[in-house]
Amino acid sequence: MFKYGSVYKELRKEQEVTQTQACQGICSISKLSRWENNQVEVEFSTAIALLRRINITLDEFTTRAEIATESELPKKIVIAIRDENVPLLRKYAQKHLAKYHTSKNFLELENILVVCNQLLLIEGKNYLSPADIQRIGSYLLHNTVLSKYNLNLFASSPFLLNSELGFKIAMRIVHNFDQISDLSDNLTIFMGGLSDTVIAFILKKKLDYAQKLLNELKKINLPFYFMFFNIALTLLQKIIDYCHTGDEQPVLAIFDNLIQLNCSKQAQKLLEAFKDVKKVWEDENV
């Protein structure tokens, strides 16, 4: 469901679009009128279609509506993630998932996915139901607006989605790179989310998906100030090679390069991911 119809009404009038023009082929005039007067809600897909009709992006709409698309996690939850406080994280996830199941509002999902992702990494359990995964995956796969919020949803999802669905979404996003290339903050989310997706495929032993996605990422001409991601892509290739050969020295050499470039924080994050990869693949060879 999607609220704030009165905001849509203001934007529609600013664009000098009539109700008939706005809703043709999407919904009835009466439904649009009731939504614009905050009397009813409309489905998220309907709201997106109506926004496209007046050439307004989801980011622009949510900013105008003062919806917190960059909502921050409560401080206690941030601490719980750091301390791996599973009971508190589980309580938060279950409470907010129940709320989401009632509202079906995608704008409530970002923090939920962050916490569910952490729970999956800590205790190996996915708190999303198959229906949740399918709905989130379908939304990300078919939504044509690569807004910052939608990129954040994807960046929080690579370990939660099944590999086949995750691969389709990742390839669709990378092939629409031109939509976000002029926004540096979106580019960071874009590259970070796709890099994490490559790692997720490796951990799930889907090396074919990992290699195909990585090959597409290598084709992107990144600005010079995104040098870190170029090195990160090289590292990901070395990790895939490690999975085939068992030789970790080329991987460790890249970590040294990152530290020399004062990217120690990023290097530490990638090193932890590599440790997880080693554990998975060493267990495979036992």
Kindly summarize this structure in a few lines.
The chain is mostly helical and 286 residues long. Helices cover 70% and strands 0% of the residues.
Write the layout of secondary structure elements.
Blueprint: H1 5-14, H2 19-23, H3 29-36, H4 44-53, H5 58-64, H6 75-83, H7 86-103, H8 109-123, H9 130-142, H10 148-155, H11 163-174, H12 184-203, H13 207-218, H14 227-245, H15 249-260, H16 264-285
Helix pairs in contact: 1-3, 7-8, 9-11, 10-12, 11-12, 11-13, 12-13, 12-14, 13-14, 14-15, 15-16
Report on this model:
- It is a single chain.
- The protein is mainly alpha-helical.
- Helices cover 70% and strands 0% of the residues.
- It has helices at 5-14, 19-23, 29-36, 44-53, 58-64, 75-83, 86-103, 109-123, 130-142, 148-155, 163-174, 184-203, 207-218, 227-245, 249-260, 264-285.
- Helix 11 packs antiparallel against helix 12 (184-203), helix 11 packs parallel to helix 13 and helix 14 (227-245) packs antiparallel against helix 15 (249-260).
- The termini are far apart.
- The mean pLDDT is 85.
